[in-house]
Write a sequence for this structure.
């Protein structure tokens, strides 16, 4: 995108009330904008590109992992729509790119409804531009912070679009690794899942250092220390904890390319250090 001198913009909350201008903070790298750069997008600032290039300098696997995570999102959403899910709560959605949640779900079920939530103002701007091509009343883009799950559940925009008494797919793709232990990510997920009825689903992808040496695994998080959110990689056992009390769907918790692949050749586990899984609430 064009680099701005003045980066304040106005936006609306879920109940349609104007809020104060939000600062994009272009001088501080943001994970959503860095991820956009990994995917080849243009909605990022020089600070985002500089930090992303530091991560990419660690090896080509970073971009491979980003693309594999995106492909997992599409396969998981398609699977959930095929299981009859018609409501999707996508938190930490990131900057829109081809094959978004609503596009994927509505190819299977045109009546599917999607609430996108993110805490980055630039995501809101671009996400709302997508609404021009979405079925009216089927998609909303709202500002919210995953670390405030009760506020998410009470958000008027979420409540207006989604019926939380009916099954919902809770999507947490590549976002929980930006919630550190001090914010208790397990309690956050438990609060969200507990509010959803039986028959709902939880889909997660999460960065891991399981396939790296301790030194290698520490390089990425070190770069993110100057970003707006820190990177906390977790082991397979730690990621499994997010699914406690739920029924993991086949093939269980695997690396992103191995979750129901639709192409014969996939990157290896060591090439894509992202755990991925989908579970049903009984």
């Amino acid at each position: 995108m064009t680099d701005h001198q003045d980066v304040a913009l106005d936006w609306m909350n879920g109940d349609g009330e104007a809020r104060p201008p939000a600062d994009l903070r272009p001088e501080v790298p943001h994970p959503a904008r860095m991820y956009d750069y990994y995917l080849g997008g243009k909605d990022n600032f020089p600070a985002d590109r500089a930090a992303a290039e530091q991560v990419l300098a660690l090896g080509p696997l970073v971009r491979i992992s980003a693309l594999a995570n995106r492909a997992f999102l599409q396969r998981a959403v398609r699977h959930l729509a095929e299981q009859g899910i018609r409501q999707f709560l996508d938190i930490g959605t990131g900057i829109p790119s081809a094959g978004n949640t609503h596009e994927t779900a509505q190819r299977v079920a045109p009546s599917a409804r999607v609430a996108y939530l993110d805490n980055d103002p630039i995501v809101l701007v671009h996400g709302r531009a997508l609404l021009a091509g979405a079925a009216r009343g089927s998609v909303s883009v709202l500002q919210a912070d995953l670390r405030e799950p009760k506020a998410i559940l009470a958000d008027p925009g979420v409540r207006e679009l989604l019926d939380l008494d009916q099954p919902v797919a809770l999507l947490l793709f590549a976002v929980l690794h930006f919630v550190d232990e001090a914010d208790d990510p397990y309690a956050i997920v438990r609060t969200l899942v507990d509010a959803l009825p039986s028959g709902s689903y939880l889909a997660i992808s999460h960065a891991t250092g399981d396939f790296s040496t301790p030194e290698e695994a520490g390089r990425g998080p070190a770069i993110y220390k100057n970003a707006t959110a820190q990177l906390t990689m977790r082991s397979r056992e730690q990621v499994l904890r997010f699914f406690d009390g739920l029924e993991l769907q086949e093939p269980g918790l695997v690396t992103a390319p191995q979750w129901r692949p639709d192409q014969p050749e996939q990157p290896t586990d060591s090439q894509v250090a992202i755990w991925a899984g989908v579970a049903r609430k009984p």
Summary: The chain is about 35% helix and 15% strand. The beta strands are 8-9, 22-23, 87-91, 113-118, 139-143, 169-173, 201-207, 247-248, 254-255, 274-280.
